[in-house]
Amino acid sequence: MVSGSAPRSSVLGFYLHVPFCVQRCHYCSFNTAPLEAGQMDPYLRALHGELDVLGGLSWAGDVTIATVFLGGGTPSLLEPEALAAILDDLRARWRLADGAEVTVECNPESVTRERLARYRAAGVTRVSLGVQALDDTVLKTLGRRHDARGARAAFDAAREAGYDDVSVDVMYGLPGLAVDAWVSDVERVLAWDPDHVSAYALTLDGGSPWGAGGVENLPAEDDVVAQYWALTRAAAARGFEHYEISNYARPGHRARHNLGYWRAGEYLAAGPGACGFVGDVRYGNIKPLTRWRAAVDAGTLPVETSERLTPRQRLAERLILGLRTSDGVPAAWLAERTASEPALARRIDEWERAGHLVADGARVRLMESGFILSDALFVDLL
Amino acid sequence: MSLARNRNFSIVAHIDHGKSTLADRLLALTGTMDAKKAVDQVLDSMDLERERGITIKAHTVRLLYRAKDGHEYTLNLIDTPGHVDFSYEVSRALAACEGAVLIVDAAQGIEAQTLANFYLASDAGLTIIPVINKIDLPAADVDGTREQIHDTLDLDGTEALAISAKHGTGVPEVLEAIVARIPPPSGDADAPLKALVFDSFYDSYQGVVIYVRLKDGHVRPGTKILLMSNGRTYDVAQVGVFSPDMRPVAELSAGQVGYITAAIKRVADAKVGDTITEAARPTAEPFPGYRDAKPMVFAGLYPIEDTDYEALRDALEKLRLNDPAFSYEPETSLALGYGFRCGFLGMLHMEIVQERLEREFNLSLIVTAPSVQYRVLTTAGEVLDIDNPSRLPTPDRIEQMEEPYVHSSVYVPTEFMTAIYKLAQEKRGEHKSLEYIGKRVHIRFDFPLSEIVVDFYDKLKSISKGYASFDYDFADFRASELVKLDILLNGDPVDALSTIVHRDKAYERGKALVEKLRGVIPRQLYEVAIQAAIGSRVIARETVKAMGKNVTAKCYGGDITRKRKLLEKQKEGKKRMKQVGRVEVPQEAFLTVLKT
User: Do B559 and A284 lie within an 8 Å CB cutoff?
Assistant: First the structure.
């Protein structure tokens, strides 16, 4: 299904998955693998192999890659040479747009100024730093391997390496995280003067150690809500735009790759468990490392699941993803969706009356008070 | 054809005392079907039930048995439903027999339904063969059970057969006893046809298949028959026996058990208990005891999606084809829109109907709190039957209200007596009598039906560690101090959540109800006030706070599909919500009223 589907757009994103982690964080349910000796080289060989298969698709020469995102796992476990080889391989097979955004997710303990500088020399333009928290006790609870001092050092290293697009990931709603402690964490992080902040409320996922085994000491819902508002206020005071439910950026520093997701744009994917979207087809790669490798070695696309979206699903996705952003969606899209369901139109009126949603003629968007309730609306929009 | 080697019998027992196990053994032992096939047979009919939306059980089976005297006997085993909701149906099935095997569990002893079944069988004049089952159990007390049979049932305990249906021990002796002790049917094959309808089901090819026991006369294809309760006549298409599948025969005659088809369209036209006779030469008098099955419990059934109304009506019509004991008529609710008021024999019956509607017809339903039928005398002198609380006239128009009462029997080991009396008091029970039977007591109470329809049996079981047993039948209507308890969401009464309760319990119930509702109504965009009120007086209030947070933070690595699937799952759950005004009320909310 994937190989038979051609992209609608000529400009695509590219997601590369690096599954390795030194250890799994307690909240994480993503596709990761422990980094064991001798695993990295076969992985890299297979990744190049997958790029080879993808690059051989008939339309590969017609598209331009505008953004690249190396996610994980822990992509910063890649040696600079390995990262450079991947990006070189990419450039050899696709046209990379001028000024393409190339992001690497980094864990603070695995980066140094030198490593980041060499990443930059290889073509990386943006660093996303997994700080998560600044309280060392909380960091330990999360299963993170860095402390607050290490996080700050990593941030400074990125700046010293010359990056002018540095994003910091933080989490709230964490076990043992009091509202005032969060407020001071936020102030400290913002004082570093990052270009972008991603802030995720802890979600207990079945696939994570906490989701499976449970976790104590979670803050009350009201406290989580208070933490959300503390961040939105502090970020606004510092001139950040709250441009997506969980993302804040200084003007001109929005994450372009992620904006592609939210605009229901297309993207290619490589690596175990990586997800792509081409034409009307959303697909996911085989997750277990060895099976993924075997599929690539056999010269096939290592796709495990794929689904061709119906026009109705496409519309729902465009609404749900678009409403995650402060740009919202064209009012016409929403009108198309509500045309067949008057009850839904009434629900949306309620959201508007409650002040969670604004319709200003051409576009419809959620307010910050709507962001934090958004799933309740998205369920109806499906 | 001689009837001397025919025996018509039934097996009756308290639930779980081993009725089906014994029936399977008898089938296997007489070669009617082997044990493996017996299991398959049951499974097959359940499939059929699903496919055709009809109820087919092994209602009656013809066994051929060569007795020790060397003769071959035809034994008709007539199965009976096993639940108090269906005691009328049981009584009609027993009326088709000359004898009954009464099973008593050797470890449990006599229970309420042992006794209820015993009385039904004995009222029908049947020869009763007591059988003590499960003698293989370590806790089996055969001698004690013999004593109980003697003391409680006034039967000769020494004549009870001790068996283990599970292992087959003593089962051949049961067959011998059926032949030796139960009299052959008597009847006059030359007299006008007189046949008792003891069950029926709808088959989409043949129409209604009627289970009959012929008392007098004979019937064959072509006979013009008359159903005496409604005066309808039909031409018989086929007659036959169950062995165990339907097998056509040339004729059924006095004393025999079998089936008749006559292109009858609705089960309601051939009701259990009716008498079939010849149109040309009717019998002088029908079987006594016929009555219309009367619904005891009423509830509103509403589609969650308004657009499913037509589908629900069609489904109810189909179900009713095969189940005349169930009634329905259209009603409207301000909160729920268009639906149906349905009457059921009891809660089990209601659950069966609801489950079949949801499973076989793929409908999502809201079932409102069940209600009994109240009798209201208005100030204007009218008598109204009220089975829907929202139809209750305003208090100023009510002269007097009456509610249905039942006579009930509770059997329980003496150690649980105190707990039983406490429960009875909570449920407004009136104590009638107390009798000691060995280590157990038999207590009779009269209860308002409304107090026992819902969860009484479960409570009884739990406070007695499962040892108490219970049986009841309708007594009469009695004057009672009743009020309508309304539930308001954000100030608007939700008619479907209204209940009629005794004045003394209204406050406590209102409080419990709003607390429970607070737990099941999810947080919404707005705060939701839940109030309980009698008339304009609010007696309890709880608040569901506005939703604080409902957000998925992150779409990891562009895995949009996963996010969408999570939302789809939530949406699936939301399909069971009904929009009542501005409030989304889940199906459980209506169940809460039922369970509080």
Answer: yes
Q: Torsion over CA of B566, B571, B573 and B576, rounded to 10 degrees?
A: 180
- Helix, strand or coil, per DSSP, at residue A190: helix
Task: Mark which residues 214-273 of A lie under 8 Å from B by CB.
Answer: 221-222, 224-225, 228, 245-246, 261, 267, 269, 273
Enter the pTM of the model: 0.69
- In chain A the domains, ranked by start, together with CATH numbers, are 2-262 (3.20.20.70), 311-381 (1.10.10)
Cβ of B558 and A277 within 8 Å? yes
Q: Judge: B558–A371 Cβ closer than 8 Å, yes or no.
A: no
In sequence order, what DSSP letters do the residues of B136-172 get, joined into one string? TSTT--HHHHHHHHHHHH-S-GGGPEE-BTTTTBTHH
Q: List CB contacts (< 8 A) between A313 and chain B.
A: 564
User: Residues of B with CB below 8 A from A221's CB?
Assistant: 548-549
Reported ipTM: the value is 0.89
pLDDT of chain B along its 596 residues, tens only?
478 999 999 998 887 888 888 988 888 888 876 544 554 444 334 343 333 333 334 468 888 999 999 999 999 998 776 665 667 778 888 899 999 999 999 998 888 788 878 888 888 899 999 999 999 999 999 999 999 899 888 888 889 999 999 999 999 999 999 999 999 998 899 999 999 998 888 888 888 999 999 999 999 999 999 999 889 999 999 999 987 778 899 999 999 999 999 999 888 888 888 999 999 999 988 988 777 777 888 999 999 888 899 999 999 988 887 777 788 999 998 888 899 999 988 877 888 888 888 888 888 888 888 899 999 999 999 999 999 998 899 889 999 999 999 999 888 889 999 999 999 999 999 999 999 877 778 899 999 999 988 778 878 878 887 778 788 888 999 999 999 999 999 999 998 899 999 999 999 999 999 999 999 899 998 899 999 999 889 999 999 999 888 887 665 667 888 888 888 888 887 777 788 888 888 887 887 777 66
CB contact under 8 A, A15 and B558: yes
- Facing A30 at nearest CB: one of B550, B556, B574: B556
Identify the helix (H) or strand (E) that includes residue A269. strand A267-270
Whether the CB of B222 is below 8 Å from some CB of chain A: the reply is: no
Q: Where are the alpha helices (DSSP H) in chain A?
A: 40-55, 80-93, 113-122, 136-142, 148-160, 179-191, 209-213, 221-237, 256-262, 289-297, 311-322, 331-338, 342-353, 368-371, 374-381
Among A237, A224, A226, smallest CA distance to A197 is for: A237
For chain A, what is the radius of gyration of the CA atoms? 21
d(CA A106, CA A241): 23
CB contact under 8 A, B549 and A373: yes
Q: Which among B525, B556, B561 has the least Cβ separation from residue A354?
A: B525
Q: How does A201-231 read in b/e, with b if 16+ C-beta sit within 10 Å?
A: bbbebeebbbbeeebeebbeeebbbbbbebb
Dihedral over Cα of A292, A294, A295, A297: its sign: positive
Distances (CA, A) of A41 to B54, B281, B294: 65, 98, 78
Residue B101: closest CA among B11, B235, B205 = B11
Residues B559, A269: C-beta atoms closer than 8 Å = no
Q: Which of A221, A312, A323 to mutate to test the interface with B (most CBs of B within 10 A)?
A: A221
Residue A132 identity (one-letter amino acid): Q
Who's near B72: CB < 8 A, 6+ residues apart? B5, B64, B65, B66
| Chain B interface includes A81 (CB < 8 A) | no
How many angstroms separate the CA atoms of A218 and A213, rounded? 14
Does B525 sit within 8 Å of A221, measured CB to CB?
A: no
The DSSP string of B557-594 is: GG-HHHHHHHHHHHHHHHTTEEEETTEEEEHHHHHHHH
Could B567 and A375 be called an inter-chain contact, meaning their C-beta atoms sit closer than 8 Å?
yes
